From TrEMBL:
Organism of provenance: Kaistia terrae
Family of this protein: Belongs to the mandelate racemase/muconate lactonizing enzyme family.
Key words, A-Z: Isomerase, Magnesium, Membrane, Metal-binding, Transmembrane, Transmembrane helix
Record gene name: dgcA
UniProt cofactor note: Binds 1 Mg(2+) ion per subunit.
Enzyme class, UniProt record, top EC level: isomerase
One Pfam family named in its UniProt record: MR_MLE_C
Name of the protein described by the UniProt record: Dipeptide epimerase
Length: 327
C-alpha cells in the first residue's frame, strides 16, 4: 500500500454577506486535506480564522510540513501530541477519521458507539446590522425554530428587541463576539432577559473571563473565543455556564471528544458550533453534537452553494453524514 496526501484551497461564495463585530466577508475560504492509503481515501476540511492568527497560506504550509514527517497515516493521538490545536490539525485529524472508516468499513458513528445518530435542529445565524435590518432578517427567518443573533456592542439593546419583534416565536441565542464591556454588560443582559434569550456567547473579550464571576448572569453565558481545548476548562469554571466546541479551535474531532467529556464532567452546558464552511466541515461536528443542548452547524445554509454530496438540511433540521460525504 502507498500513502499520499494533498492539500487544496477552495472558495465558496456566501449568500449575501456574513457580518460580525470584527468585520464582514462574502466568501468562505476553506482548506481540504485528502489522505490516500492504497484504495482508500479520507477527507477533512478546515476554515483558517484570522482571530486566532491563522491565514490560508499559513495553514496550508503547516499541513504540508506536518504531513511530510509521516511515511504513512499518523496515529491520531500522535498527531494531537505533535501539532498545536487549530485549523491545520483539524483538517488532518478529520481526514484520518474518514480514512479509518473507509479502510475498516466501520462508520465513525459506530466507532464512537453512537447508535442511529439522529437529525438535529441547528441554529440559523443572523448577521450583524442595524436594528431595522436585523428585524427584517428575523422576520424572514421567523419560521426557523432557533436563531443565532450576531451582536456588536453599541446598539445591541435595540438589536435584541428588534429581532424579538421580527421573530416572536423563535428561540434566540446571541453572540457578542467579545464586543461587550463590563460597563454595558448589565444593560445588555437585561435586554436579553426581556427578549427571552436562552444563551449569550462570549460577551467579554477573551482574557477578561474573571470579570464574569462578579456579574449577574440570569441568562447563561457561553465561552467561545476563551475556549479551545480541554486544558482550558479549569479557568472557566465559575465564569461561564456553557462552552462552544468548534473543531477548528480544538484541532479536530479527537480533541473535541476529549473536551466534550471533560466539560460534561464539570457540568457545562454544551454547544457545538462551526465556522462558515461546507458540509465536509460540518459532518464530524454533527456526530459530536448528538445530545448537545445547543447545535450551531448552519455553515452550509449561509453559502450560496454547498459541495455535493453534502449534508441534508430540511429547514433547520440537519441529518447525519452519509458515507459518501464523510465518516
Amino acid at each position: 500500500m502507498t500513502f499520499s496526501a494533498s492539500v487544496d484551497v477552495e472558495s465558496w461564495p456566501i449568500a449575501g454577506s456574513f457580518v460580525i463585530s470584527r468585520g464582514s466577508r462574502t466568501e468562505a475560504h476553506v482548506v481540504v486535506v485528502t489522505l490516500r492509503d492504497g484504495a482508500w481515501t479520507g477527507h477533512g476540511e478546515c476554515v483558517p480564522y484570522a482571530r486566532y492568527g491563522e491565514t490560508v497560506e499559513g495553514v496550508v504550509a503547516t499541513i504540508r510540513a506536518a504531513l511530510e514527517t509521516f511515511s504513512g497515516p499518523p496515529d491520531r493521538e500522535a498527531l494531537r501530541a505533535a501539532m498545536p490545536p487549530g485549523a491545520a490539525r483539524n483538517a488532518i485529524d478529520c481526514a484520518l477519521w474518514d480514512l479509518e472508516a473507509k479502510r475498516s468499513g466501520i462508520s465513525v458513528a459506530d466507532t464512537l458507539g453512537i447508535v442511529a445518530p439522529k437529525a438535529l435542529i441547528t441554529a440559523y445565524t443572523l448577521s450583524l446590522g442595524t436594528a431595522a435590518s436585523m428585524a427584517e432578517a428575523a422576520r424572514v427567518a421567523s419560521h426557523r425554530p432557533l436563531l443565532k443573533v450576531k451582536l456588536g456592542g453599541d446598539g445591541d439593546i435595540e438589536r435584541i428587541a428588534a429581532v424579538r419583534r421580527g421573530a416572536p416565536t423563535s428561540r434566540i441565542i446571541v453572540d457578542a463576539n467579545e464586543a461587550w464591556s463590563a460597563e454595558n454588560f448589565d444593560a445588555n443582559m437585561r435586554a436579553c432577559v426581556e427578549a427571552g434569550v436562552e444563551l449569550i456567547e462570549q460577551p467579554l473579550p477573551a482574557g477578561k473571563d474573571e470579570l464574569l464571576r462578579h456579574l449577574d448572569r440570569p441568562v447563561p453565558v457561553c465561552a467561545d473565543e476563551s475556549l479551545h481545548v480541554a486544558d482550558d476548562l479549569g479557568h472557566l469554571v465559575g465564569s461561564y455556564d456553557a462552552i462552544n466546541i468548534k473543531l477548528d479551535k480544538t484541532g479536530g474531532l479527537t480533541e473535541a471528544l476529549r473536551l466534550r467529556k471533560s466539560a460534561e464532567a464539570l457540568g457545562f452546558t454544551l454547544m457545538i458550533g462551526c465556522m462558515v464552511g461546507t458540509s465536509l466541515a460540518m459532518a464530524p461536528a454533527v456526530l459530536l453534537a448528538q445530545d448537545a443542548q445547543f447545535v450551531d452547524l448552519d455553515g452550509p445554509l449561509l453559502l450560496a452553494r454547498d459541495r455535493s454530496p453534502g449534508l441534508v438540511y430540511e429547514g433547520s433540521l440537519v441529518s447525519p453524514p452519509a458515507p459518501a460525504l464523510w465518516g
